[in-house]
Amino acid sequence: MCSDVSEQKNVCLDQILADRRSYRMFTAAIPEEDHIRRILHAGLLAPYAAAAVGGSKDYFRRFFVMKRGSQSLNASIPLVMEQVNVMAQGLQKEMETNPALRKKAVMFVQRLEMFRKAGRVPGVGNAPYFIVVAERKGFPPVELQSLAHSLENMWLKATALELGFQLVSITSQMSGNAEFCKILGIPTGEWELMGCAIGFPADELSPSIRPPVEYVTRWLE
Question: What is the span of the domain harbouring residue 167?
């Protein structure tokens, strides 16, 4: 039997889960640093692959916060755009001889082309904060799964704080970029990366639409 407190917790959690949305437009207002720290703490509490990194003497997870207009972010923006160009050119070349890839990747390539024309990646420079989360590589290689847990915790906490949150997936392509890793102060190739943008949302988005649980669930005997 659930107590009143337990029920209140579940109601609040259900509301946060339902309110979680991807925001790509932010106001110029800068969130309080305390709110950012609370979001980072939520990411730190996320589960991780203990068996993969258990032998490491150094901690397995790191956070790097870049504020809009900062030296670190200004230096990162062209590096991220360079990676977009490399990805777009590489995919276009491979798609010329791979019809299956061409069919699957055409929309992604079009999105990369939008970034190239705009001269920026959404979330990197247009939001008050661009945050990179790093997970130490181990074996088996499950760093991306751990990063997903961490970013989801951060996303939910940002939602609870009424802040907008956007995943910046191109960040995962930067772990082998020596110049980018130098900005972060980590060795190239030893950490897997993922990023997000955080700020006050400029627009109110419509509720997320999902099918009924019964429609996507099969109870197996």
Answer: 25-70+121-199
pLDDT of residue 217: 96
CATH value at residue 65: 3.40.109.10
C-alpha distances in Å from residue 58, one per residue of 53, 62, 138, 154 = 9, 10, 12, 22
Look at residue 144 and tell me if it is in a domain. Answer: yes
Task: Kindly state whether residue 43 falls inside one of the protein's structural domains.
Answer: yes
Integer Cα distance of 71 and 204 in angstroms? 31
Any domain includes 90: no
Checking if the pLDDT of 1 tops 60, the result is: no
**Tens of pLDDT, residues 63-109:** 999 999 999 999 999 999 998 888 888 888 888 888 888 778 878 87
Residues paired with 131 in a beta bridge: 65, 196
**155 vs 41, 104, 115, 161, 182, CA distance in Å?**
12, 28, 23, 10, 27
Q: How many domains does the chain have?
A: 1
